[in-house]
């Protein structure tokens, strides 16, 4: 009887932020990384250790759905994500990541405020570290955490990408507010593609 672990599948999509690598287990997306594969080999060694499987090129339904929803997000047609995620982290890190997902599209918060939200008012530095350990940016929107004085703060995907994401969301919200005054527009969270739903149901 084989004891081989299921591989973690990895594929690359193009985006306005450059290439995006999406990795997923059978449970969900476990990594989103900006840039080409050559820049992240060490990261995938860590990922394989975390999830107990080798990295292999390919796609599953989670990667297909993630790519589909990211394309909608960048086209200002999606404000939330339904793709399942697979997380590996300490209880504290997971509490921070859960709090990140509660930050509304187009909104921002500070590291200090995020620490308050999880009941650790003096844990601002630890919250910042957990924020930096988020391996699924955009889906878990760590870009929405900025400095208390309004500065961008750090971002593993480089600050220009963080600025792009914040501006995309602010402009989309602004257009939505104008639409409420002057007329209707497309659903900001269109239905998941039938093909993606069928593939998920079949797994």
Would you kindly provide a written description of the structure presented here, covering whatever features stand out?
The structure is a single chain. This protein is an alpha/beta fold. It has two domains: 8-85 and 190-202, Methylated DNA-protein cysteine methyltransferase domain (Double Stranded RNA Binding Domain); 91-182, Winged helix-like DNA-binding domain superfamily/Winged helix DNA-binding domain (Arc Repressor Mutant, subunit A), CATH 1.10.10. 42% of the residues lie in helices and 12% in strands. It has helices at residues 41-51, 61-74, 91-101, 111-117, 124-132, 159-182, 194-202; strands spanning 8-13, 20-24, 29-34, 55-57, 109-110, 145-146. The strands form two sheets. It has a four-stranded mixed beta sheet. Strands 5-6 form a two-stranded parallel sheet. Strand 2 (20-24) and strand 3 form a beta hairpin. Helix 2 (61-74) packs antiparallel against helix 7 (194-202) and helix 4 (111-117) crosses helix 5 (124-132).
Strands across the major sheet, in which order?
3-2-1-4
Helix content: 40-55%
CATH architecture of the largest domain: Orthogonal Bundle
What proportion strand?
5-15%
- Number of DSSP strand runs: 6
């Amino acid at each position: 009887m084989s004891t081989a672990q299921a591989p973690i599948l990895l594929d690359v999509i193009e985006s306005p932020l450059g290439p995006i690598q999406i990795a997923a287990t059978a449970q969900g997306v476990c990594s989103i990384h900006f840039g080409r594969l050559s820049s992240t080999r060490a990261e995938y060694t860590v990922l394989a250790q975390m999830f107990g499987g080798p990295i292999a090129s390919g796609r599953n339904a989670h990667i297909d759905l993630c790519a589909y929803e990211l394309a909608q997000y960048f086209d200002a047609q999606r404000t939330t994500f339904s793709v399942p995620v697979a997380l590996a982290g300490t209880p504290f890190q997971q509490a921070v990541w859960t709090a990140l997902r509660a930050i509304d599209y187009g909104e921002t918060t500070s590291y200090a405020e995020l620490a308050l939200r999880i009941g650790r008012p003096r844990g601002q530095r630890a919250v910042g570290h957990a924020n930096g350990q988020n391996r699924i940016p955009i889906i878990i929107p760590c870009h929405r955490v900025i400095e208390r004085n309004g500065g961008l703060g750090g971002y593993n995907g480089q600050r220009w990408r963080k600025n792009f994401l914040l501006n995309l969301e602010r402009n989309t919200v602004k257009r939505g507010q104008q639409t409420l005054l002057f007329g209707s527009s497309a659903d900001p969270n269109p239905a998941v593609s039938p093909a993606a739903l069928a593939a998920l149901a079949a797994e």
